[in-house]
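Exercise 7. Predict the structure of Protein phosphatase methylesterase 1 from Corymbia citriodora subsp. variegata.
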Amino acid sequence: MSDLLRALPKIKQNGTAPRPTPFPLTTAHEDGGSSSSDSSVSTTDSIDTLRPVSEYSTSGPNPWSQYFNEELWLESSTETQKAIYHAYLTPPIDPAKGPLFICHHGAGASGMSFARFATAVKGIMPRAGVCSLEAREHGSTVTTLAGEEVLDFSIGSLVADALTMIRLLAEKKGWKTLPPTVLVGHSLGGAVVTRIAAEGSLGPQLIGFAVLDVVEGSAIEALMHMKTYIASRPASFASPEDAIDWHVRSRTIRDRESARASVPNLLVSHGDRWVWRTDLARTQKWWEEWFTGMSAGFLKGRAAKSLVLAGTDRLDRELMVGQMQGRQPEECFWVCCEV
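Solution. The predicted structure, encoded as tokens:
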């Protein structure tokens, strides 16, 4: 979705969603389409230029333990369904003081999308914690009690999943109350954390929330090109290393270490190939619902808030009015790009 939003000005000019333009790769199949994708384990188009890649063309995956202290599998059940939720965690040194950054990825991504963010936070705030959640069919699994799949990507269900994961996390860690929390959401994750903030679901423990790379207006406008964009990706890869290389060369991810951390989780083995874990086409029914009302919710959220975009021209009307009213001050950083 973020790639599509960055390409939106070109789409308006050309009329079609552009294909990524990687350097030639012989191992990725570009035939379009996509395919669908307990306990805890602990250890102690604003920039159009391609960053230089490393001296070798591919490099292997980085393990989750390089970025987080724990990998969590959190089980939940109701009268109609059961779930095994997946998350990564580095807990705050003092849960009473926090802060705890709880992150939610975008559609088709994974909890490891925030791997380098977790490292950066710990470098700046050594006593802080970071938890990165994974949505259903992105690493978490939700089924009926009989084990049949539950096809429901409504924003209400995604928000309920996130809140359940947060509750189970607190229970597992023995926290009587959630640490002072900052929610961080990218693309679809931004819609999820905005809804949580607007509804006050975490009460006074929510001290802030940040939305990355998405606003309601441009997101909904880009959705008409989403199917074409999905079909433009390689359908499979020979190995995770080839997928990492494709993401960097196509500028889908501009930072190689971030790709090494996050891309392997996007794939599952299928025969002798690696295919996408999440079938984004299956989520089409809910695309517009995800982002409708997001701008109003962002302005309504009662906590410190931050909206991080690639350019000021990406504000939609409601956010622009809010900015002019002083409800959302603007600050520009001129040397930066999405990793």
